[in-house]
Amino acid sequence: MPELKKYQMFIDGQWVDSDTKKTFETLNPENNKPWAIVPEASANDVDRAVKAAQKAFEGEWPKMLARDRAKYLRAIGNKLRENSELLGKIETIDTGKLYRETYQQAKYIAEYYDYYAGLADKVEGTVLPIDKPNIQAITTRIPIGVIAAIIPWNSQMFLTATKVAPALAMGNTVVIKCSELAPATMFEFAKLVEETGIPKGVVNVVSGFGDPCGKALTTHNLVEKVAFTGGPETARHIIRNSAENLSEVSLELGGKSPVAVFDDAKQENAINGITAGIFGASGQSCIAGSRLYLQKGIYNEFLDKLASRAEKIKIGAPMDSDTEMGPLSNFKQLEVIEKNIKLTVEQGGKIKCGGKRHPFSNEGYYFPPTIIECENHNLPAAENELFGPVLSVMKFDTEKEVIELMNDNQYGLSSGVYTSDLARGMRVSNAIRAGITFVNTYRLISPSAPFGGIKDSGYGKEAGIDSIKDYTRVKTTWFYTSDEPSLDPFSIR
Q: Hey, which of 63, 357, 422, 476 has its CA 20 to 30 A from 110?
């Protein structure tokens, strides 16, 4: 058995073990075998990291000219480009995501650091039209302080960049908690950050479990904002924890994203988009288009074509360049998927393709593209977020009906519409209650495009020009401009 790779946490510019010396193993989903050892942070380790971030915040970092902070962000972006192959390989080993995606994503995410570097010196204040004589008032935007960035195992570089880049651009400092399911990529990222020469304590990375690591971080009295991506149950814990320190919270949670295909849609394009939305990354995406509504006139024809496409998807080792779907990230996901499919079939769901573990490997967590026909979206597979390659398909008749069906959803992150009628595309996209709607496409990201949802999909936006302001607070400054003494001190003016 090969020797396991050993990682340390990055705190105050130093590589350290947990003060308890506790560690845990991270598994390779391709073969269910441990490949690396990671420190298990204690509450004391978290306290050290937060205090290091607070010290850095009280130091030179927020006082730097914005253009000088921007240089560090651009340096991080360049490091990502230069090391995209390494980052992609580590993320693939740790999560099972395809190397062809992780490698390309590591390169592309550099654009986020460039984007926020460009915005760093463009966040402006205002001069207020005050209704009082001899008074001048202005607003400025100031950094918040220590940011706790809690990152899930999927799309790690993207979901780190959307938090860390705007936070750093505005002069905040950061403590990153990586997922216990796949922490390795964050340590490799920290190595690159260290190479930029960024001041000590500005970026810190800890690894551990929800308790004590996550709890200690989200309740710490020096943490001013928690930026979290993950599941609703963990989010509820974070909100409760934030009552301890009155920190701001932004939540990017899951979804059960609906996609509608109308009779007039270009079918080949729709099939490609649906395939990307639910089978890309093995369905392990918060915006996965996992509910599909097909108009009655094309239902049978379209479903047959889609199932045929799904059955041709090549399942294999995630490092192989011709693999189109690799393993799921962990065994718990596999169990959840199998349980929900079983319940759905028992309640009348019909499996069109897939539905059982794939024989590619008896050791890894492989599950094939699965399509289930459902009478309605209240069946388990259609109702619950499975975070896997499982698509529930339903019929609809009219535009009004499908809008009602798409909005009958506890989540509101993403959605999709396929139609050749531009006016219909506009009407339906405007009517869907979701933070993101794709029309005749799916699964796209950009630094300039806000990302986030409504309802149980959370609140707050990541990426886009406005999100940088979410890492600031507005400060109002009043100036008295007269040489004469102010009037009656016992009367508010």
A: 63
